[in-house]
Amino acid sequence: MLTEADLDALLAGRHADPFSRLGLHADDKGRLWVRALLPGAAEVALLDAGKDKRLVELEQRRPGFFEAQVPRRKHRFDYRLAVRWTGGGEGVYADPYAFYPQLADAELKAFAEGSNFRPWLSLGAHLVQHGDVAGVRFATWAPNARRVSVVGSFNNWDGRRHPMRLRHEAGVWEIFVPHAAEGDLYKFEIVSGNGTLLPLKADPYARRAQLRPDNASVVAALPPPTALPRQRERANRRESAISVCEVHAASWRRGVSGDFPTWDELAEHLPAYVADMGFTHLQLMPISEHPFDGSWGYQTLGMYAPSARFGPPEGFARFVKACHDQGLGLLLDWVPAHFPTDAFGLADFDGTRLYEYADPKEGFHRDWNTLIYNFGRTEVRQFLIGSALYWIERWGVDGLRVDAVASMLYRDYSRPAGEWIPNVRGGRENLEAISLLREMNEHIGEVEGAITVAEESTSFPGVSAPTYAGGLGFHYKWNMGWMNDTLRYMAEDPINRRWHHDKMTFGLIYAFSENFMLPISHDEVVHGKGSMLAKMPGDDWQKFANLRAYYGFMWGHPGKKLLFMGQEFAQRQEWNHAESLPWGLLEDDRHAGVQRLVRDLNKLYRAQSALHRLDCEGAGFEWISAHDAEHSIYAWVRRDGTGRMVIVVCNMTPVPREGYSLGVPDGVTAWREALNTDSAYYGGSNIGNGVAAAGLPVQDQPAHGRRLSITINLPPLATVFFVPI
Predict the structure, then answer these.
(1) Which residues contact 59 (CB under 8 A, 6 or more apart)?
(2) CA 650/CA 504 separation, integer angstroms
(3) CA 166 → CA 5, 36, 37, 563, 675, distances in Å?
(4) Is 455 assigned a catalytic role?
(5) Burial class (CB within 10 angstroms; exposed 0-12, middle 13-18, buried 19+) of 520
């Protein structure tokens, strides 16, 4: 018999095991009783589902609580509840407490042990069918909670209606809610272990969410498995040309409404533009759900949900396809380093520091006022690795650019002495994060063609080395040192560059220690740093010439390329996330010229295997002139290992140098100019070396320590590429 204490606990939403009391149960004499907690119901009757027969009217023992003994039945049977509501309306419903546990013991055991790396197949909200009853299976991890209920649009947000079953093996709470459906809003109502009712929590595994400022989770179908197109595997290889356009989807071009563009609006224009510009890959800044626009997506709470800013998730699938149809790879910015403190999110999820480290010396980021994941906890590791695999396996993206890796690797990152906790060996490395990144990359490495790119700003060894060789297992690493050194050099007035010559050469000392990507990202054109054009010294002519020369230097330099949107046409102002790019600048031929240059640099980079095949190997690079600081000239040879070559020459002063003798490799009789950033086509002064079929003959005259040379005209503030004839 149900005791008054049981009844009090059920009505208060505090019962430890509602499945043992609600639904159909036999008493100690073998008689069947049915009990239902339905706040807001006026009348409830029991129906035999198979015969659609009314068996008994339930007695309302307390407001909202109904029970009755089942006549002439000794065994469990399929039943329904006919309900008339006090506010009007009535319906026939399956009872959520008539269904057995939803999750298999094996998958819960794997989750508890830390070997379930696709936890999104178990946790979250899943559309399921039990016989003729459709509904949603909800499950969440909250091991320290006293009670968890799912609340939503299907139960008037009443936590007494659907308290969940605790599966003690893993601390997972679950329930099947009949008649809940795709599009329903929901959250979890959690009572902590000390009895505190917590703020309603969004689902960590939600695949869709409301548009901010609303923050409920939305029931969504699980995307089907989506493999990468076969050709993507080759396109993502180390020896392939990889040139990335980084894009902030919300501000690339506003939607027709003047607000966020939809995925379909983006799909119609963005992939085609990026492909026409010659880029091989498109990288989106974080598009997973996040509460604050001003974080640009880097303070995410929806690690499995494409942001509602761009419309329903299925639109994202069409966008991915549009990228692949254009021959583009798609990379997503992914943020496993930290998460915001919003009360509806992961913070103190079950009343304890569940997803984050408990000690603020480990678990709080001072730079961003965010919380740090507990990288050592098995369930958190599965949550993060599962998210990485989810985007690749279920949406078919090519890979992930992993944000803020340096902040994960070091326990003292941005912390003064005495305010960080050493690892178990007494060191500063975060051993748990290192292990997590290795494990994540090993799992992603099992997906043919998928890649990861690390934003890692220190000299941590082996970031892009295989895990079996002791590395972290990333495919590529951003070369932040190269970016900082070369931008400092370019900011110098040309008359002073002779004193800073080594800033442009220093990167070649370590250029092949990792698989590097050269990044000119959004971080370089915000927070008072100015646009790329604004960084350049001199008058307007010199600014444009300097920028063109720098882009030529970058595309000729070993390493994969990345350029942030708007910089391909020399945006004048800093990037503003709340506005569209200033596309009107392209009416000015100087800006259009820079755009034409970037397009042609990409075309040359892809066409000439010497410029990309050995991007990450020392055999692909050879200096011709590295020490001409007096004239600020740099010259080198790029090779592909099969005999093909390209010569790159940079003049970083506004002084043209006609009749310049350039030492060249043996084995070629003539060279021709393949691209000149000073061409009038790009807005330059058009000093160059012509395009005659005969090219520039090799002379038996020594230069730069070589026995052969060619005589060239070296334009001012320009980079020139030469290829053999």
Answers:
(1) 66, 67, 68
(2) 11
(3) 20, 19, 18, 49, 67
(4) yes
(5) buried
Q: CA 272, 274, 277, 279 torsion: positive or negative?
A: negative
Contact 296, 521 (CB under 8 A): no
- Asked if residues 380 and 365 have their Cβ atoms less than 8 Å apart, the reply is no
* Residue in 246, 379, 432, 455 annotated catalytic: 455
pLDDT of residue 690: 84
Cβ of 438: how many Cβ atoms within 10 Å? 18
| Structure token digits, residue 265 | 């609006």
Answer yes or no: are the C-beta atoms of 654 and 544 closer than 8 Å.
Answer: no
State pLDDT tens for residues 178-198: 999 999 999 999 999 999 999
- Who's near 572: CB < 8 A, 6+ residues apart? 531, 533, 534, 582, 585
Length of the chain: 725
Q: What integer pLDDT is reported at residue 645 of this predicted model?
A: 98
Q: Cα angle at 628 between 625 and 634, to 5 degrees? A: 50
Beta carbons within 8 Å of 229's beta carbon, 6+ residues apart: 324
Amino acid 357: pLDDT: 97
pLDDT of residue 692: 67
Beta bridge partners of 566: none
Q: Which of 173, 179, 73, 84 is nearest to 130 (CA)?
A: 179
The alpha carbons of the chain give a radius of gyration, in whole angstroms, of 31
Quick count: other Cβ atoms within 10 Å of Cβ 132?
8
Question: What are the residues facing 90 on neighbouring strands?
Answer: 84
Residue 530 confidence (pLDDT): 96
pLDDT at residue number 512: 97
Active-site entry in 107, 398, 403, 524: 403
Task: Identify the CA nearest to 504 among candidates 524, 484, 485.
Answer: 485
266 phi-psi bin (left φ>0, alpha ψ -120 to 50, beta other): alpha
CA neighbor of 236 nearest in space, from 325, 327, 329: 329
Query: What pLDDT is attached to residue 142?
Result: 98
Handedness of CA 273, 277, 283, 286 (dihedral sign): negative
379 phi and psi, to 5 degrees? -65, -35
Half-sphere exposure in the Cβ direction for 453 (13 Å, CA): 29
- How far is residue 234's CA from residue 601's CA, in Å, rounded to a whole number? 21
Point out the residues of the chain with pLDDT beneath 70: 1, 691-693
Is 80 strand, coil or helix? strand
268 is catalytic: no
Q: What is the pLDDT of residue 691?
A: 66
Confidence at residue 16, expressed as pLDDT on a 0 to 100 scale:
83
Per residue in 522-541, pLDDT (tens digit) is: 999 999 999 999 999 999 99
Q: 130 phi and psi, to 5 degrees?
A: -115, 105
Task: Determine the pLDDT at residue 258.
Answer: 78
Six token digits for residue 111: 């989750």
For 236-251, letters b (16+ CB in 10 Å) and e give bebbbbbbbbbbbbbb
Burial (CB count <10 Å: 0-12, 13-18, 19+), residue 2: middle
Name the token pair of 409.
């690797």
What tokens does 206 get?
A: 């939600």
Give pairs for 160-164: CB < 8 Å, separation 24+.
Answer: 160/10, 160/11, 160/13, 160/37, 160/39, 160/64, 161/37, 161/38, 161/39, 162/96, 162/138, 163/13, 163/15, 163/18, 164/138, 164/139, 164/140
Q: Which of 447, 504, 452, 551 is nearest to 238 (CA)?
A: 452
Three-state DSSP state, 163: strand
Within 13 Å and on the Cβ side, how many CA atoms surround 704? 23
Integer Cα distance of 412 and 362 in angstroms: 9
Query: Long-range contacts for 459-462 (Cβ within 8 Å, ≥24 apart)?
Result: 460/406, 460/409, 462/514
Q: Between the CA of residue 303 and those of 250, 346, 368, 602, what are the distances in Å?
A: 18, 11, 18, 33
